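> call design_seq(struct)
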């Protein structure tokens, strides 16, 4: 979909559908909707007074405006999108409505769409952020993963053009900025989605590394990919232990964006869990739903995606992305429950359950980051089924050891509409990780599964400011919700970009 910003009166724009909006309770619309209403002889106000349009959220009214009847009105149709109450309007509502609008218009066979930026008038949204939200909702909401669907003849084609139309020239700079940021954020999140949706037979650790190399090459990023022998030399016994049960070689991916090369200590390390398939290993998962474990590299996908946008938007900060990619398989040379492995930092771990593999790989990825003088670490992982039990699939639990970094992460996530909620790292659950035979064990028993996993990682982060985002429930959805289609959501890619932009702003 091509997106452009055009300065024009809304009545003059030649498209299949012009999208305007209406807040609940408004009886005589102003702004662009008002201009359309006047040009159409008051038809919108009449529909409102007749009770046909109420402006409630996700109410859509399509009005045909043929040239024969309205010779000076250029759009062929007008879609009035309800935005709900102006009190509860925010960019999140805008993303949701824009997503639904684009899917609806695609189903109707629309090719050329023009839209105004929703809610910058009585909605009270900042113009740039409003434009960003419309673009994100449109791009993310119309996403489909179709590459393996070859026989679907009835499928509606994609919308070709989206024109963001604005009459007021003083708003154009802000709209242009919001649109480009929205495109960069969305393309990054879509890259992450594509990687998560890709089946495991099509995306090995080597394939993931190849994508990261391609992103790095196209955007001027440095990249290093370590092989098994390299990480063995570094002492990453926890990571290697996970990998040894399957034939596909591990790839340890490290991408670097230098936005403040004079100050290497001004850095942020984004560490994404990169299990390209999690069978559970010898602690084999049940068969039902195991296919979803193709998405167990969702954290890694989000950091690769974020690096693409970060390199385009250029915050003044050095950002490192790390993904210790591997399968977790139950082959004859797989590690066994009860094995003891030694992580890069020298700590020993009793592998109580080979299905708690994510924390093992993260332990060594964090060890690596610390060996390179990381000052802020954010790890992103599809880590625990317990995350869904705790908070459902609308909110990602987060844990951390530093209030400043935590607040930055929470504010970033709030601003992009990817909800997160901090859970405590209390002393009681911490004890659940203690092992009789090693420094730690990789499981924490029945209660607080997400918390014990976070405690495990915390022990490797030590005193360095660190936040852990558990996206096990939020990185894939069973059903479409707002701007997130069923399947991979790409969450929390935009939060990571936003975080880098704020830290380097
Ligand atoms: N990748 C899974 C977590 C997961 C579960 C992600 C469901 C997405 C959806 C992780 O490696 C895992 O298996 N965790 C175990 C930990 C347990 C063995 C301590 C879990 O959550 O059951
Ligand atoms: Mn697992
Ligand atoms: Zn896993």
């Amino acid at each position: 979909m091509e997106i452009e910003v055009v300065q024009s009166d809304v009545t003059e724009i030649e498209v299949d559908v012009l999208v305007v909006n209406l807040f609940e309770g408004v009886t005589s619309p102003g702004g662009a909707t008002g201009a359309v209403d006047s040009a159409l002889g008051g038809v919108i106000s009449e529909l409102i007074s007749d009770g046909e349009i109420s402006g409630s959220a996700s109410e859509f009214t399509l009005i045909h405006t043929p040239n024969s009847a309205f010779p000076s009105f250029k759009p062929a149709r007008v879609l009035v999108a309800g935005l709900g109450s102006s009190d509860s309007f925010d960019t999140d509502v805008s993303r949701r409505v824009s997503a639904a609008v684009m899917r609806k218009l695609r189903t109707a066979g629309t090719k050329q769409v023009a839209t105004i930026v929703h809610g910058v008038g009585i909605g009270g949204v900042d113009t740039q952020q409003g434009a960003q939200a419309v673009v994100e909702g449109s791009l993310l909401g119309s996403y489909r993963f179709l590459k393996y669907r070859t026989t679907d003849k009835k499928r509606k084609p994609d919308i070709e053009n989206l024109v963001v139309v604005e009459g007021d020239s003083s708003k154009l700079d802000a709209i242009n900025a919001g649109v480009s940021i929205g495109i960069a954020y969305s393309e990054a999140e879509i890259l992450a989605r594509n990687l998560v949706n890709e089946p495991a037979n099509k995306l090995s650790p080597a394939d993931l590394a190849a994508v990261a190399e391609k992103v790095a090459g196209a955007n001027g990023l440095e990249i290093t990919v370590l092989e098994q022998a390299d990480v063995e030399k570094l002492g990453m016994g926890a990571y290697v232990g996970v990998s040894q049960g399957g034939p596909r070689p591990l790839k340890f991916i490290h991408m670097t964006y230098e936005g403040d090369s004079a100050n290497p200590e001004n850095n942020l390390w984004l560490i994404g869990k990169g299990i390209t398939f999690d069978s559970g290993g010898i602690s084999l998962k049940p068969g039902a739903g195991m296919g979803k474990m193709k998405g167990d590299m969702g954290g890694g996908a989000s950091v690769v995606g974020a690096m693409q946008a970060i390199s385009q938007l250029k915050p003044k900060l050095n950002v490192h992305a790390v993904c210790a990619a591997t399968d977790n398989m139950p082959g004859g040379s797989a590690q066994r429950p009860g094995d003891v492995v030694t992580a890069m930092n020298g700590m020993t771990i009793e592998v109580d359950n080979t299905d708690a593999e994510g924390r093992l790989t993260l332990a060594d990825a964090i060890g690596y980051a610390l060996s390179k003088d990381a000052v802020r670490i954010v790890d992103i992982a599809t880590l625990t089924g317990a995350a869904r039990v705790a908070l459902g699939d609308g909110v990602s639990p987060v844990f951390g050891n530093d209030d400043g970094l935590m607040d930055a992460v929470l504010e970033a996530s709030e601003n992009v509409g990817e909800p997160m909620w901090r859970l405590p790292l209390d002393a009681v659950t911490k004890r659940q990780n203690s092992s009789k035979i090693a420094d730690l064990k990789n499981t924490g028993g029945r209660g607080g599964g997400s918390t014990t996993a976070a405690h495990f990682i915390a022990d490797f982060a030590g005193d360095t400011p660190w936040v852990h985002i558990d996206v096990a429930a939020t990185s894939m959805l069973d059903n479409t919700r707002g701007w997130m289609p069923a399947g991979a959501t790409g969450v929390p890619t935009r939060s990571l970009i936003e975080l880098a932009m704020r830290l380097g702003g």
